[in-house]
Each structure stands twice: as C-alpha cells, then as structure tokens.
Fold:
Amino acid sequence: MPGITFPRAVEHVQDSLRDPLTPSFCVRYYLYFVYLIQFDHGVSKRRKRVPIASEKDSFFYSLSDITLSNLRATCPGLFQAFMIFIRTERSRDDMRALAQRMESCNCDRTDPVISEFHCWHWVDHAPLSCQYPTQRRDDMESLITAIGSLLSSPIEASVWAGHASRVLSSPESPSGWPFSLNDAFGPDPPKSATQLCRWLDEYPCFQLIHLLAYSFQDHAFESTLLRSATLPRTIVRLLNRGLAALPADFAARSVFDRFDDKLPLSLMAAFMSRTEGIEDGVSLAYFYDDQAEPLLDVLTRIGRVSEGLNDILLNMMLTGTGGAVHAKLVLPFDEARYHPHILVGSKQFKEKNISDACARPWQTTQNILYILTTKPMCANPTCGNEFDADTWQRCTACRRVLYCSAECQQADWGHATKPHKKICKTLKAVGDAVGFPAATTPAAPVISEDVFRNQCMKAGVSSNALELMLKRVLLDDRIMKILNAEPYSKRYERLT
Structure:
C-alpha cells in the first residue's frame, strides 16, 4: 500500500469514530482493524486463533509491532475512541438502528485504507470463545464482542498495575491506556454502566463480562451494575453457554486443554466474585431476584461437571455466589437439588447472617416483634399453618407467639434448636417493656431504636439476654427469610 503508513491507518480509524453516535464505516471495516492487533499475553500468546485472514499481501499484516502492549503505549487515543463508542448512551431503538446501518456496507472503497480494511475473510477454525466471537458474521454482535475483547485486557492490566481506584497508572508509564478509570468509564460511570449492560443484554458475550469485572474499582459504576434489570439474566445465560461449550470429555482432558475449555466460566467466576464483596446494602439474592433459582440450577450443573477437579475458582463461585443466594432466600438444604459446595457456602452465610443480626440486638429484636404481631404464624418451626383467630391459642406465659394446636405448642416448647422454653421469659419481658401488644390488634407501636433500647434496659433486659434469644429465634427459617427480604425489596430502582 504505497504511501499508507500504519499511523495514518490509526488516524483514519480514530477520525471515523470522532462522533461515537454515528461511526463513519461499516462493521467489516472495524472488525479488520480490531483483529489486526495481536494479543501478546496469556492464552493468545500460546494459541493464537485470530478469526480472520487478509485476502492479499498486506503491509499491515507484515508488521511485527502491531501488538496490544505497543499500541496501548503509543496510540492511547485509539483505545479511547473505541471505549467511548461502546459506552456512549443509546436507547435500545438507537442501538438496533445503528446495527442495521453498520451491517450494510456503503463504504467508499476507492480510499486505499478503506479498501484494505475490507479485503479479508473469516477463518474456519475452533474459536476461543472468551476472546473471539463463536459466530463468524459481519454483524454488530461480532463487532461488540471484538471491541470488548480488545478493551478488557488493557483495563485488567492497568487495574493490576495501578492498585488504585481512580488513577491506575501515569501517562509516562509504558503500560499505557487506560491511565485512569475515567479513561475507561468516563465522567459519568452510572450512564456508562447502564449502556454496557444494554450492549450485554443485546449481545451476551464473555468479552464484555471480562471488561465489566474490573469496573468494580469504581463505586458509582458497581452500584449501577447491581441495579441492572438485565444483568442477572445475562449472567445466567452466559453460565449456561459456558457450560454447554465444555467438551463431553472435559474432566479427562489435559490441564492445559481444560484451562482453555473453562476460560469463559473462569471469566464469569471472576466477575461474580466481585459482586460478592459489594458493601452498599444490596443483597445478592435481591440482585438475582427471579433469576436466583436458574442461577443455582446452572451452578449445580457446573459443579457436577467439574466434580473431582478441585477447581478453586469454580468451587468459589459455587460456595460464594451460590451459597450467598441460597442463604439469603433461606432455601431448603436439598442435597439432590443443590450442589454440596452451594450448601456448604449457604451454611457459612447463614451463620454470618445470624451473627450480623445478633450484633444489632435492639434493632433485630424490634423487627422480630413486628413480625410476630403483623405476620401471625404458628410458632412451631416445622408447621406451615396460617393464622386462624377463632381457634389458635397464644403461649400463656409470654403471650407473643401463636400455636395452631396443643401438639405444636408442645413440640415448640422443647424444640431441638429453638426451644420456646429458653426464650419465653425474655420475649415477655421485652414485649411488656416496650408496649408491644399480646395480640395482632391493636397495631404494634412505632418507636425509635433508641427508645426501644432505653425502655428495655430500664426494665432490666440486657443486650446479652437479647442475643441469646435471637440466636435461637433466628434458627427459624421463616423469620430469617422475612428479615432478609425486608431491607432490599423496594430500596433500589431497577435500571434498563
């Protein structure tokens, strides 16, 4: 290509993306350039599977320095242009209109750069699904997948090199773009997060999950992700896709082959592990919402396929996310339905949930009294009967719990884990001290936590006595489930 240099080609691409809402060229143009950049690390260095090939002796393809690390340092504006393109806010209709326009080529091929960027074809070989698209098509899905792959590795490298939240590296650093999280996610992280979730919902791919995994350095970005109405469904879809892609002889393959096979699931595990550590009041069970059961189902199947391999990352996904969701929803310990790692994690999270609740004895006790007076149920944990005002009896001592029969009252009095005889006296003392009624009417008084604590202490009810009572009461899964659900049910508006 006489007279055309690689810097000129880079400039050509950047100029075409100057207005991120209306890129100048078609999908094929950008796919060529993205795949021209050679990954020079990790799996791609060991097994290069670039999915396209040039149809002529290309000047560009003869160059040895078109590598990801080199371009990050020398052409940061190129990566910035692609990042701005995928994070710029668009409506769903705008995204589909853009795809329709870019999938139809009207490029002027008399321009030698444009002509070069169209002279290629897909290569038919087994793809590495976490790096390249599994579907070989000239469409927007392939382009978003390719851009996600191109951008995720530099962001990951900068996060690991920078060990900081807002500033990842200096412009003088040889590691290159992005130099800060602002470069990657822009001045308005919530809008960027919402848009990236929209792309991910339209085109579910592991590459964008990889990119999003390192966004958890930014609190505003991460909290937006956890409010996404579509991300939980996408996670479940990609877990199922990663599981379906595993070969039938996965467990018998070599360590290196298994590494490649499970890389998509490993990316999912890395992303999901970051959601587990979020301390912004969002329950994982609320985040997954109606996807919780499908999530536990696919995690169980992943665990069974990888049985005996002692895969730390996959096991952590089961015990971490799976265990947290199972515990928050207070689901049954069904060994036939849920993988053992999920149940082990759930037990650990349940113990932590009880410990956290007991650390706030006044607030938790007040919440439990409200439950007992507003959601009447038979106090026997093994009974599921609903309240019948005409036939039910209250404990004659504390007057705060209900029983549907003498048999249930007798069973609860000496229950193995939460015997009522151990909590009856404290429950009565608290209820009397703060004026909680002994019946469902009149309504329980609304008082502040400070007033509740002061009245209890004035009546001689100590925090230690409350903690002992709570450790028994909270073993009733029905009460724990209500306590888990209350803070999350309406707190966060879902973003689409």
About this structure: Residues 42-47, 163-174 have pLDDT under 50 and may be disordered.
